[in-house]
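Data availability (excerpt). The following record was deposited with the supplementary files.
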Amino acid sequence: VVGSKEAAFTYAVSSAGVAYAIAAACSRGNISACGCDPKHKTRKELAPAGWKWGGCSVDAGYGMRLARRFLDAREIEADARSLMNLHNNKAGRKAVRQSLVTECKCHGVSGSCSMKTCWKTLPSFRVIGDN
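Predicted structure:
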């Protein structure tokens, strides 16, 4: 039903799904215009002592920008329903960003973990839907 809680959830999940799929494809190297998140490779101030950012952090920002361009473009009216749909689209994209998980791998002789490399990754989509 249009304008219902169910419709709001559908808009949010659709927006999250598009952002998630694009971000996942970027980190797998399936889209030539994007790749790993460049911010996490260079921001040493974000890395706690004893570890560094590495691997391929998912570029959720790229996925969110494309999802916004693609889905929000349909809402051209400035009426209450369009504004509500835009809000729900944004909520879905925000759920993707807030659900990113930090994964780490230890490196060192005999499992000493003298160096730990960490990166941001996407959880299962179910986790995002539950949020």
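Summary of structural features: The chain has one domain: 5-130.
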